Amino acid sequence: MELNTIKDAFDRVSKKQKLSASKSQEVIDQVGFEIDQALAKVQSANDSCSTVDQKSILTELKRKLDPIGPLQQFEVTQKELNISLSKYQKLLDKCFNSDISKAYRNVDFDFHTVNQIIANHFYQQGLFDIGDCFINEAVEPEAPMLKSQFLEICHILEAMRVRNLQPALNWVSANSENLQQNGSSLELKLHRLQFVEILMKGNRSDALNYAKTYIAPFADRHFDKVKKLMGCLVFAKRLDSSPYSKLTAASHWEKLTEELKRQFCSLLGQSYESPLSVAIAAGIEGLPTLLKLANVMAVKQQDWQTMKQLPVPVELGREFQFHSIFVCPVSRDQASEENPPMLMPCLHVLCKQSIMKLSKSNSVRSFKCPYCPADVLVAQCRRLYF
């Protein structure tokens, strides 16, 4: 069942819940109003030493509350809401398999690697206390190295949040050559941001001196950008209302923060996205297919735990595609070092094992390409590298 159906059902339940709450509040307000009126009469009678009988006031209150019937109204609205919730729960049970343990597969894990991935996740998120606690519990000896890699970037990012670029500038200066090899202009962007901050404070002389010291060395490679910064000097103290006002946008800080983190992780040989987060996200996306497969295999009384390869593809989004792979269109096997992709003269590609089967392992015997009328010899096939 499509997610739109579930969303529509959720919207109906949400609407029913709001209506129930509104009706209940209306009844509560009516009852509260009558009680306040009765209390006011009792207080007035006590203040004026009136002979009005309190019992008669309460009798009148009961007479007014009976038509309202608060308990009956609560029961009706609550019953309608419970019916909607019950239907929604049945729909969820029908659409989703709550027992996700069926998708579990016995796999031999390298627990040392898994522990490092979990610890890395905590350190990369800046949760150093939690990471230390986990490492101590897991008894991982390489913890100090994992932690030290992210302490520096955490300090740099915290400084940037308060508009302090000095730690970031120190880091890019120390890693200037590596950043250039990566084709990154991060160093210039940080100096540009610092130049703009100085200029916005109105100190044209300090901004010019900063440009001569730190930005001028980039003029031969980024002349247009440097020229634009020099034009900003004319608009000291009013840069935000000048033709260069885009340079003052807060989004530059956000983008540079992300770029700095990416470059930092790249130079450390670490992934920008936490591997643990990626693995969990991919697992969530592939879980419905795995659960369906497990149910089908259970009906056929087959054990999918013993399979070396899943009989159906688990489709994941492009965000989970990190490197090129090739799957043979004939055998459906994924290419490997032992079974590499081979380009045929007709420009179609098959895996080596498929080619050997089609040629019956005869290098001088031609065979027909499965996708066109071309005749192919094994010797004419060339290995492809992705």
UniProtKB/TrEMBL annotation:
GO terms for biological process: proteasome-mediated ubiquitin-dependent protein catabolic process. Keywords: Cytoplasm, Metal-binding, Zinc, Zinc-finger. GO terms for molecular function: ubiquitin protein ligase activity; zinc ion binding. It is found in: Cytoplasm. CDD domains: dRING_Rmd5p-like. Residues 149-206 form the CTLH domain. Pfam families: CTLH, zf-RING_UBOX. It comes from the Eukaryota. This is CLTH domain-containing protein/zf-RING_LisH domain-containing protein. It comes from Cephalotus follicularis (Albany pitcher plant).
